[in-house]
Amino acid sequence: MRFQLTDDQEALRTGVRELLDRCFGPEVLRTAVGAPGRLDRTLWRTLGDAGFFALRLPEADGGVGRGLAEAVLAFEEAGRALLPGPLVATHLAAGDVPGAATGEAVVTAVDGGVVEWLGAADVVRGDASGAVPLHSVDPLTPLHRVPGPVAFGPAGGVAVLLTAAEQLGTAARVCELAVQHARTREQFGRPIGAFQAVKHLCADLLVRVEVARVAVYAAAVTADPADIATARLLADEAAVRGARDCLQVHGGMGFTWEADVHLHLKRAWVRAHRGGGGTQSEEFLAERLVA
Amino acid sequence: MDLSCTPEEEEFRARLREWLTKVLPTLPAAPPPDDWPGRRAYDLGWQRMLYDAGYADVHWGASPTTRLIFLEETERAGAPYVGANFVGLLHAGPTIAAEGTVGQQARWLPPILRGEEVWCQGFSEPGAGSDLAALRTRAHRDGDDYVVSGSKLWTSHAEVADWCELLVRTDPDAPRHQGITWLAMPMDADGITVRPLRTLAGSAEFAEVFLDEVRVPAVNRVGEENDGWRVTMVTLSFERGTAFVGEVVACRRTLTELTRTARENGRWDDPVLRRRVGRLDAEFRALWRLIQWNVSEAETTGGVPGARGSVFKLRYAHARQELYDTAAEVLGPDCLDLDRPWVLDRLSALSYTIAAGTSQIQRNIVAERILGLPKGR
Ligand SMILES: Cc1cc2nc3c(=O)[nH]c(=O)nc-3n(C[C@H](O)[C@H](O)[C@H](O)COP(=O)(O)OP(=O)(O)OC[C@H]3O[C@@H](n4cnc5c(N)ncnc54)[C@H](O)[C@@H]3O)c2cc1C
C-alpha cells in the first residue's frame, strides 16, 4: 500500500494546472464572468486536444488510457481554476458521443431536475423536454429546470466522484486564498492571520481540505460506491463551508463581486446539487450500515 | 496511489484473524472500568499473549501497513485495546526507539513489548497545560543522579505505572524551550506521591503526582540535557499522529452497533437520525483514509509523523464526540442511565478535545506550522 501520488500522477497534475493557467487564467475568468452564458468553444477544443475528455478512453480508441485516479486529479484542477462548462457530462460521453472526446461536441446531461449549459450543448443526455431557464445563482453556469420527477444522471458514481473532485479543487483553492489574505492584510498593526480567530478559521479550512482529499483519492482508487458517497459528502462540505469561511476571512472585500470567493461558493452550491445531493449519499451510507 | 496489500500482508491478516478467533474466547472477563490494578493485569496479560504469538511489536517495529492491518483485525474481532499500555506502546516506546541510546532501547523496549512494564506521561503541570513549555518541575544534577522536585497533573494511569516519561526544567535561566530535559523516572522511587483524581466519568484514571527530591539516574535521560523540548516534540507527534489510530476502527464498530439498536427501537424511522449516521459513517471512513495517507507519507519521509497528525487529532476528537451524542439520540431517555452502553463512553469522549493538546492548540499548530501564519498571542 502506498497511498500517495505516483510521480506520473504528480506530473499529470502539474501539467493540467499549467495548461489551465495558460488557457483559463484570472483574466479569462474575469472576461467569462463579464459575458455569462457563452461557452468558449476554443477553450473546449483546447481541453479536448489536451486529452481532458478522452483521459479514460483506451488508447486503442484514441484516448489517453488513464484511470479514474488521473481523471480525479484533472477535475480537481478544473475545480481550482473555476473552469466553466459541462465538464463531467462531456468527459463521461467521450466513449459514445462523437466529438465529445476531442472537445468538438459539448455534451450536457439532465441531472437531479436541472440541466447545466443546455443552450450551449450539442447533445443532451436524458429527457430535457419542457426545460425552463433559471436565473442561475452561478454566473458561469447557466441552468434549466426540468419538470417532472427528479432523475439523476446516467453515469451515477463516476459523475458524483468527478464532481467531488471539482469540489476538492475549489476547497483547496479557497483555503489558499484565505491563507494568502490572512498573511498580507493588516489590521491593528499586524497581519490578521496573527489573530487566533482568523487563524482558527484557516486551520479548519485546511483540515476540511485534507479530509476531503483523502476521501476523494481513496474513492478514485477503489471506485466503491460507499467510498464515492463519502468523497462527495466530505468534498461538498469542504467546498461550501470553505468558500464561506474564506469569504469571512476577506471581510468586506469578500462580499464584493471583484473577489473570486463568491464565484467559488456559487459553483460549489451548483455542484452540491448534482447526482442527488448529499442527502442521497447520507441515506445510502446509513442503509449500508444496517444491511 | 495504491490501497492494496501485498500477498505477505494479506497472509499476515489471515494468520492474525485465525489466531484471534482461537485466543479471544480464552480471555478472562475484563475488569470493571474503575479497577485500575485489575486493568493493569488484564492489559499486560493481553500484551504478553501478543508477544508470545509474535505480534507485540506491531506498534513500532512492523511496517506501517502491517500495523494498520493489525488494528483493523484486532478491533473487528473485539480484542482488548492497549489500555494501560497506551503510553508505553504508543508514545514512550516509539520515542525511545527514535531518540534513545542502544542501551536505553535494550533496557526499556523489551519489557514494554513483553507486557511487563507500564508507563505514564508526566508532562502537564498545574501551571503548564496547553503552555507545556511553562513547566516548572525542576531537576538539578547531583553526582550520577538528577534530583527532581515539583508536581505533575492529569497523569493517566500514574497509580499503576512503573515508569514515567517526565519533563523537567534543568536550566531555569535558559529561554523557556531550551532548559527542558526528558527523563524516564521509576515510579517506585522515594519522594513520589500519587494522589488519584476523580474524572467526570466517575473513575480515577488520572492523578496528581508530587515529586519531592526524587533521585533519577542520569543514564535515564533520553536526548541531551536541556534538549528535551525536541524529544518532547517527537513524543507529541506520536501521541497526536498515531496513538488514536486504532480507535477509529472502534468508532466504526460502535456506529454499526448503534445502527442496529436504532433499528430495534424504532429510532431508525427518523430520517434526521439516519442522515446523521450516514454522515458519521462518511466521517470515519474518511478518517481511516487520512490515516492510510499519513502513514504512507511518513513511510516515504521516514518515521516520525509530522504536524499533519494535528489535522487528524483535531477532526477525530470532534467526530468521536459527535458519535456518542448520536448514540445518545438513539438511546433516548436511556442515555441518562450510566449502566447503558455508550453513556460512559459519551462522558469519556469529552476529554478528546482536551487531552493530548486541546483543539484550540491543534488549530494553532495547523495554522502556524502547516499554513505558515504568523505567531500571535
Ligand atoms: C483525560 C485526560 C488525560 C490526560 N492525561 C495526561 C497524561 O497522562 N499526562 C499528561 O502530561 N497530561 C495529561 N493530560 C493533560 C492534557 O494534556 C491537558 O489537560 C491539556 O494539554 C490542556 O491543558 P490544561 O488542562 O492545563 O488546560 P489549559 O491549558 O488551562 O486550557 C484551558 C482552555 O484554554 C484554552 N487555551 C489555552 N491556551 C490557549 C491558546 N494559546 N490559544 C487558545 N486557547 C487556549 C484551551 O484550549 C482550553 O480550552 C490529560 C488530560 C485529560 C483530560
Structure commentary:
- Chain A: Keywords: FAD, Flavoprotein, Oxidoreductase.
- Chain A: Residues 162-279 form the Acyl-CoA dehydrogenase/oxidase C-terminal domain.
- Chain A: Residues 6-91 form the Acyl-CoA dehydrogenase/oxidase N-terminal domain.
- The complex is a heterodimer of chains A (291) and B (377).
- The two termini of chain A are 28 Å apart.
- Chain A is of the alpha+beta class.
- Chain A contains 10 helices and 7 strands.
- In chain A, β1 and β2 (114-116) form a beta hairpin.
- In chain A, 56% of the residues lie in helices and 7% in strands.
- Chain A has 2 domains: 7-145, Butyryl-Coa Dehydrogenase, subunit A, domain 1, CATH 1.10.540.10; 156-290, Butyryl-CoA Dehydrogenase, subunit A, domain 3, CATH 1.20.140.10.
- Chain B is an alpha+beta fold.
- Chain B folds into 3 domains: 7-114, Acyl-CoA dehydrogenase/oxidase, N-terminal domain (Butyryl-Coa Dehydrogenase, subunit A, domain 1, Orthogonal Bundle), CATH 1.10.540; 119-226, Butyryl-CoA Dehydrogenase, subunit A, domain 2; 230-371, Butyryl-CoA Dehydrogenase, subunit A, domain 3.
- Chain B contains 11 helices and 8 strands.
- In chain B, the strands form 2 sheets. A 4-stranded mixed sheet of chain B has the order 1-4-5-8. A 4-stranded antiparallel sheet of chain B has the order 2-3-7-6, with no helix packed on it.
- In chain B, α6 (228-241) crosses α9, α7 packs parallel to α9 and α9 packs antiparallel against α10 (343-349).
- Classes of the chains: A alpha+beta (291), B alpha+beta (377).
- The interface between A and B is large, with 52 and 54 residues.
- Residues 120-124, 129-130, 154-156, 206, 351, 354-358, 360-361, 364 of chain B line the site of flavin-adenine dinucleotide.
